[in-house]
Design a protein that fits this description.
The structure holds two protein chains of two kinds.
Chain A lengths: L1 E10 L4 H11 L4 E8 L3 E8 L2 H10 L3 E12 L5 H11 L4 E11 L2 E8 L2 H10 L4 E2 L1 H6 L1
Antiparallel strand pairs in A: 1-3, 1-4, 2-3, 4-6, 4-7, 5-6
Chain B lengths: L5 H4 L3 H22 L1 H9 L21 H6 L15 E5 L7 E5 L1 H16 L8 E4 L7 H13 L2 E3 L6 H11 L3 E4 L1 H13 L11 E5 L5 H11 L2 E8 L4 E7 L6 E3 L4 E6 L13 E7 L10 E7 L1 E2 L11 E2 L4 E2 L4 E3 L2 E3 L1 H9 L8 E7 L5 E8 L9 H19 L4 E5 L14 E3 L8
Parallel strand pairs in B: 3-4, 3-5, 5-6, 6-7, 18-21, 19-20
Antiparallel strand pairs in B: 1-2, 7-8, 8-9, 9-14, 10-11, 11-12, 12-15, 13-14, 16-17, 18-19
The chains are: A alpha+beta, B alpha/beta.
């Protein structure tokens, strides 16, 4: 149920993001989703790719600091209140969202949102109990 | 001309040399018999205190260095039992251990006399209000200037460093006539006064005694204009006594060394050879009168040259040019001595920091020295959460601040981005340009 996300530490210097995307392109790796969290001095680039293991190796070889983190990809109804319903479930269960971002592609008529949640196994169980669909890693990587 | 102690400061050269010789012979015997470190150094090379019969024998004596302080931490270099020590100060060491110095009651009196000469050379009298913005504490600046000003009989305002707006306010309200602080702080005070709309030409402030860090002629000009004062350089290091080792007179052409209490030599830092008069090299001091901590040929690591030509002020004490550089990698930041090895030691104890780091020192206009430590991240240190990375930065900054005693900023950088050089790594970027002639 969990999806591997790459987190890449990049300094705020021109060209660094391009270095990452170029290295992945050269290795024929497709980026499925991404978000950037930035501070004054550096940013954290979070990536969902089609081949995370290979991508991690490619970036590590290019001297980037990369970590793999487990996140979940949640199907969100593409209508007003769709996301609110899911976040309510998590809030009621007292689960903190560390961060989240939207997926580029769609799963049928539904949007996909990536969540990084503390106590991830508990979150998966609670969401599934409420009938929320969580995509598997394979599903996400092949979208 | 202003003097505190004209008889001493303008002593005839021959008389001064005779006094130095006589005091040297005495201090060598005293150090040999009371400090095991000196006895060992003498015995190792078969030198006996009786072999030192006068100032011409000085080059026979082995050097003392900061390492001797570290090896004898904390009080092993003291020549008196602790019941005779009335004060202890400390400055940075190259590793985790600081350099500790001690004073007997008489040493404190000597120090006050030397600082009275220093302040007196700029015309300070008992009618003055001395705003002492040097830090009070283990650092020798605060109490050194304080005792000197009190000895003169001036009214001392022991405001210590920091809170610039309050400093300007006090200057206005108390009518401070004399300022003591670091030169970079004087610049900040000038800018603060301007920001507050205070016309410094209307202040009673007349003279500033600035030291504890290197500065340039440009900085002097800036301070003299912005604060409407004469800015005089003062020099000292806690191992030798603290501020008051040497001081500028109103000629502002080099710092007179208090030669009745210290002998200065210039050596080649590589070979240890004494260099001919006027040569540029490392400054070495021997203390002549100190009781708690006699120092024989202490290597300061400061680079300068001595000028023995007569000074129009009439003082016969030799002048040292303001410090022109260092023979080691010590940095002086906001008056605090910082060794890169101290930073390295802290980083080595933090899990996940790479042994690669860079120290960047800058001085932006209108600001004090700015110290940044760039640390390469490793996979163990990196998180996918910004909050965790910021906590890591703050944790490293806290550790460094507690070891160095000054505030600083830690910046995480990507691995392998700090330049590796062959042999000695270039760990320090100092953009302040403090040793230029400008």
């Amino acid at each position: 149920m969990k999806v591997s996300q790459l987190s890449v530490f990049i300094e705020n210097k021109s060209g660094r993001l391009a270095d990452v995307t170029r290295a992945l392109a050269d290795a024929n790796i497709n980026i499925r989703a991404l978000s950037i969290a930035d501070t004054i001095d550096y940013g954290l680039l979070r990536l969902i790719v089609n081949d995370p293991i290979n991508a991690k190796r490619v970036l590590a070889d290019a001297a980037f600091t990369v970590t793999l983190t487990e996140v979940i990809a949640v199907e969100v109804p593409d209508r007003p209140g769709g996301l609110a319903g899911i976040i309510d479930i998590l809030a009621q269960a007292g689960l903190n969202i560390e961060y989240m971002y939207a997926f580029v592609g769609k799963s049928g008529e539904n949007a996909i949102v990536i969540f990084r949640i503390e106590r991830v196994d508990e979150a998966i169980r609670i969401l599934q109990d409420k009938g929320v669909r969580i995509l598997t890693g394979d599903e996400v990587h092949s979208i | 001309m202003y003097y505190w102690n004209k008889e001493a400061e303008c002593m005839h050269k021959d008389e001064l040399r005779a006094l130095q010789s006589w005091r040297l012979v005495k201090i060598v015997r005293y150090a040999y018999h009371n400090v095991p470190c000196y006895k060992r150094k003498f015995d190792e090379i078969g030198l006996h205190p009786d072999d030192i019969r006068g100032i011409d024998d000085l080059p026979k004596i082995p050097f003392t260095t900061k390492l001797d302080f570290r090896d004898n931490y904390p009080f092993g270099m003291f020549a008196v039992p602790m019941d005779q020590v009335v004060r202890v100060h400390a400055s940075s060491g190259t590793t985790g251990k600081s350099t500790v110095v001690g004073y007997t009651r008489e040493d404190i009196a000597t120090w006050a006399e030397l600082m009275a000469r220093t302040l007196g050379a700029g015309g300070t009298t008992k009618g003055d209000v001395v705003q002492n913005a040097y830090g009070y504490g283990l650092f020798t600046g605060g109490l050194g200037a304080h005792y000197g000003a009190e000895k003169i009989g001036a009214s001392v305002v022991p405001i210590s460093g920091g809170n610039s707006k309050r400093q300007i306010q006090i200057m206005q309200d108390f009518g401070s006539t004399v300022l003591c602080c670091t030169p970079s702080y004087a610049i900040l005070l000038g800018e603060t006064a301007a920001e507050m709309g205070v016309d410094t030409s209307k202040l009673r402030l007349r003279v500033a005694f600035l030291g504890a860090e290197p500065w340039t002629t440009n900085m002097r000009r800036e301070i003299e204009e912005s604060l409407h004062v004469d800015a005089l350089d003062i020099y000292g290091l806690s191992e030798v006594i603290g501020p008051g080792v040497s001081y500028e007179c109103m000629e502002k052409a080099g710092l007179h060394i208090n030669e009745d209490h210290f002998i200065a030599e210039i050596i080649d830092p590589e070979t240890g050879e004494v260099l001919p008069p006027g040569s540029k090299g490392e400054l070495v001091f021997t203390t002549l009168t100190k009781q708690a901590l006699p120092l024989l040929r202490y290597r300061t690591r400061d680079i300068t040259f001595l000028d023995d030509s007569p000074c129009p002020c009439g003082r016969t004490f030799v002048r040292m040019h303001r410090v022109m550089g260092r023979t080691d990698d010590m940095l002086i930041i906001r008056g605090v001595n910082v060794f890169p090895s101290q930073i390295e030691q802290v980083l080595m104890e933090i899990k996940g920091t790479e042994p690669h780091y860079m120290i960047v020192v800058d001085r932006e206009p209108g600001a004090m020295d700015n110290l940044e430590v760039w640390v390469e991240v490793s996979p163990e240190l990196v998180s996918d959460e910004v909050r965790a990375l910021e906590e890591t930065e703050q944790m490293i900054a806290r550790e460094l601040q507690s070891a160095l005693g000054i505030s600083l900023k830690v910046k995480l950088v990507e691995p392998k981005t700090i330049a590796r050089s062959e042999g000695k790594a270039k760990r320090v970027v100092d953009r302040r340009d403090l040793y230029s002639e400008g």
